[in-house]
């Protein structure tokens, strides 16, 4: 175990003016608090925070971060409290340690929630203070290094979490060394066979090419010597995980991977980078399309380097990275590399310990993470930083913190279906980050989505073109199909009930069972839906159930008979369609007695008005339109003649309107006006001043002197319509105004 003075010395090596007191105090406090606690490996527990601190010294972190590393498990695992740490080390240190405590608690929650919470809390912690994340990453690295000691059941979970969350985070912070080691260990636990195979092949290839590699290294060194460039040349071997991932992603075999080997050229100055590049390119030919200059255009994580691939001395492709020492350090340690050099203006807290201010690197990281969390211009960010985790996905949360991964462009509807098909099917609205948003809203990273549900909901078919996930699309298709089928079978049942009643029979669905084969339908629902769709005539069903049934169609049509027929149906069935509207009225010819609202069909059956409209005050009738629903006609409409011989399609409807709901109803009128400028304006004026709306207006006939037009109006009721018609007639521009079919 590292001794107290050793730790101080390590920090002193890169930070001579180190706050020794802080380090010593943290060392002693943490050691005492952890006492005799042991790790799974049997080592004293204190060895763990000490190793985490050591990892951070390799990254040249400031003493505040090192001290936090020493203390990082004290609140969670010992008798230490936030207040005690505040007292001893100051509130800023206390806050950092508490941040780590929070993160640690998340390691314990169940699989899915854990991922979500980790990710979110991590992001939150980062935007608060990046040092929490740096310590957490070092903590995770040490835990990964000692993963063998964990119970087997936990290993895979921790390894997967590392691969999914921590390694990419390290990469995003520019800490390639950390990232590669995390990936390497995680790979070994997640896919041991692949790891073994790839590692063995890499070693084999390395062994076989040793001579070639030495030749290339020598050739490069000689070249730089010739051009008087001070450069270090190092061969670089691809890591097993990155090789494996490339093979998987591009479906390549090992042999097809051309860039397993590469060289890194480290020089003194930026100028030397370009001189080295010039020397290389004039000596060997470059492979087109592989040149990238991240010096003139650094990556967003501050990575700078020149990348090129050449056809080398032995005719094989050689990948080269050219960079300065400073750039190399940043490439290796990323955000951590910035901290030490820029850590000058430290703050002093009450306990006399320097707490470094946020450096530029921290500010940069906070910015980019915020950007990521807010989804602000995520494409740019992702493109420039290579985030494997987030490239084509958005991560959103349920109100309970569960993480839902969706493809980019996903909507709350996709989200709902991703949670559960039932949630999708009953989704009527969504709150995104606490605000009601349209269901078409494109979700962004970090959005918290709450789905508002209604049992009565049927997903609109139009959603199918809005969603981006296959699951949602398939579910919507299925649900709308079911809903339509249900409508049709409801309609079919209604039609059959009427037909049976007319014949003096009692309709039950069960009575269809014995005749299914004769109707060539597979089940009862199928019969009902076929009748509803108009594919199967109700009389055919009657004949199947009652072989001696005689078709008694009404052959004569006269207004009086229609009215009787209508009345009879009403009395027999006592049905009522509710049409939302205005003032309820009692018509003394049509007592309400025996009229009951239809239940179960309610919203399922679409109700519409005939083209010429109907308004409260009109006596009305509903005509069942197989396949579409019910159309409301004024009883005097000549169009009703067409249905005279199908009495089972006639349905008793009546206005059932509530004084509180203000609604206008359609009525079509024909107006003949003088063909003069301003006459149209006159008509519009009369309509408007009478509190009516023009829905559509079309010219039917235009003569030199007169114009005939059809106007679809929206009015309150019959009285309102009649008043409007008489006022139109009174207008000097109008020669005639009358209701169509009224
Ligand atoms: Mn720990």
From TrEMBL:
Gene3D superfamilies: 3.10.20.30, 3.30.70.260, Beta Polymerase, domain 2 (3.30.460.10), Hypothetical protein af1432 (1.10.3210.10). GO terms for molecular function: GTP binding; GTP diphosphokinase activity; guanosine-3',5'-bis(diphosphate) 3'-diphosphatase activity. Pfam families: ACT_4 (PF13291), HD_4 (PF13328), RelA_AH_RIS (PF19296), RelA_SpoT (PF04607), TGS (PF02824). One of its GO terms (biological process) is nucleobase-containing small molecule interconversion. Residues 45-144 form the HD domain. Coiled coil: none annotated. It comes from the Bacteria. Residues 392-453 form the TGS domain. GO terms for cellular component: plasma membrane. Keywords: GTP-binding, Hydrolase, Nucleotide-binding. Its EC number is 2.7.6.5. It is an enzyme of class 2 (transferase). Residues 668-742 form the ACT domain. It catalyses: GTP + ATP = guanosine 3'-diphosphate 5'-triphosphate + AMP. In eubacteria ppGpp (guanosine 3'-diphosphate 5'-diphosphate) is a mediator of the stringent response that coordinates a variety of cellular activities in response to changes in nutritional abundance. Belongs to the relA/spoT family. This is GTP pyrophosphokinase rsh.
């Amino acid at each position: 175990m590292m001794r107290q003075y050793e730790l101080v010395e390590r920090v002193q090596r890169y930070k001579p003016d180190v706050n020794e007191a802080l380090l010593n105090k943290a060392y002693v406090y943490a050691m005492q608090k952890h006492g005799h606690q042991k790790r799974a490996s049997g080592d004293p527990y204190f060895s763990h925070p000490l190793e985490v601190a050591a990892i951070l010294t390799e990254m040249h972190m400031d003493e505040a971060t090192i001290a936090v590393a020493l203390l990082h498990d004290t609140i969670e695992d010992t008798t230490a409290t936030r207040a005690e740490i505040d007292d001893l080390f100051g509130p800023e240190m206390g806050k950092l340690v508490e941040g780590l405590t929070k993160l640690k608690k998340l390691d314990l929650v169940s699989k899915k929630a854990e991922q979500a919470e980790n990710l979110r809390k991590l992001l939150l912690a980062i935007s608060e203070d990046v040092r929490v994340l740096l310590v957490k990453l070092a903590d995770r690295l040490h835990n990964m290094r000692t993963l063998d000691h964990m119970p087997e059941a936990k290993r895979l979970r921790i390894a997967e979490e590392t691969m999914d969350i921590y390694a990419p985070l390290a990469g995003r912070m520019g800490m390639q060394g950390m990232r590669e080691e995390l990936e390497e260990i995680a790979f070994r636990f997640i896919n041991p066979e692949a790891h073994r195979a790839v590692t063995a092949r890499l070693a084999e290839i390395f062994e076989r090419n040793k001579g070639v590699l030495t030749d290339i290294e020598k050739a490069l060194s000689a070249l730089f010597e010739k051009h008087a460039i001070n450069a270090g040349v190092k061969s670089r071997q691809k890591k097993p995980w990155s090789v494996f991932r490339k093979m998987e992603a591009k479906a390549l075999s090992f042999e097809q991977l051309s860039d397993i080997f590469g060289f890194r050229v480290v020089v003194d100055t930026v100028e030397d980078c370009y001189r080295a590049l010039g020397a290389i390119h004039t000596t060997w030919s470059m492979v087109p399309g592989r040149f990238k200059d991240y010096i003139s255009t650094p990556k967003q994580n501050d990575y700078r380097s020149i990348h090129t691939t050449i056809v080398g001395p032995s005719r094989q492709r050689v990948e080269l990275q050219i960079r300065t020492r400073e750039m190399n350090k940043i490439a290796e340690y990323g955000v951590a590399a910035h901290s030490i050099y820029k850590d000058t203006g430290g703050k002093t807290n009450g306990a006399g310990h320097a707490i470094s201010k946020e450096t530029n690197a921290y500010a940069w990281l906070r910015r980019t993470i915020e950007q990521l969390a807010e989804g602000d211009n995520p494409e740019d960010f992702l493109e420039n930083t290579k985030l494997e985790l987030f490239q084509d996905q958005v991560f959103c949360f349920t109100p309970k913190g569960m993480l839902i991964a969706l493809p980019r462009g996903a909507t709350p509807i996709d989200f709902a279906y991703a949670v559960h098909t039932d949630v999708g099917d009953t989704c009527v609205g969504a709150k995104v980050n606490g605000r009601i948003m349209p269901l078409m809203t494109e979700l962004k990273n970090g959005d918290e989505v709450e789905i508002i549900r209604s049992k009565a909901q049927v997903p609109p078919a139009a959603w199918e073109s809005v969603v981006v996930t296959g699951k949602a699309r398939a579910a919507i298709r299925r649900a709308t199909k079911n809903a339509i089928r249900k409508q049709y079978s409801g309609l079919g049942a209604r039609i059959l009930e009427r037909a049976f009643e007319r014949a003096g029979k009692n309709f039950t669905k069960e009575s269809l069972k014995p005749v299914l084969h004769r109707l060539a339908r597979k089940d009862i629902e199928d019969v009902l839906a076929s009748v509803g769709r108009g594919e199967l005539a109700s009389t055919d069903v009657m004949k199947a159930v009652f072989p001696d049934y005689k078709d008694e169609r009404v052959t004569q049509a006269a207004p009086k008979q229609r009215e009787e027929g209508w009345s009879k149906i009403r009395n027999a069935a006592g049905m009522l369609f509710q049409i939302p509207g205005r003032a309820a009225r009692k018509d003394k010819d049509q007592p309400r007695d025996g009229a009951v609202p239809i239940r179960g069909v309610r919203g399922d059956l679409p109700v519409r008005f005939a083209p010429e409209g109907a308004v409260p005050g009109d006596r009305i009738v509903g005509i069942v339109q197989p396949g579409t629903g019910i159309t409301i006609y004024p009883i005097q409409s000549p169009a009703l003649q067409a249905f005279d011989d199908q009495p089972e399609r006639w349905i008793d409807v009546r206005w059932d309107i509530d004084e509180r709901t203000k609604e206008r109803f359609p009525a079509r009128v024909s107006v003949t006006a003088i063909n003069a400028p301003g006459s149209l304006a006159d008509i519009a004026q009369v309509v408007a001043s009478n509190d009516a709306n023009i829905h559509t207006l079309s010219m039917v006939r235009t003569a030199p002197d007169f114009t005939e037009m059809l106007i679809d109006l929206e009015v309150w009721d019959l009285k309102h319509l009649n008043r409007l018609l008489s006022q139109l007639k009174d207008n000097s521009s109008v020669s005639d105004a009358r209701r169509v079919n009224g």
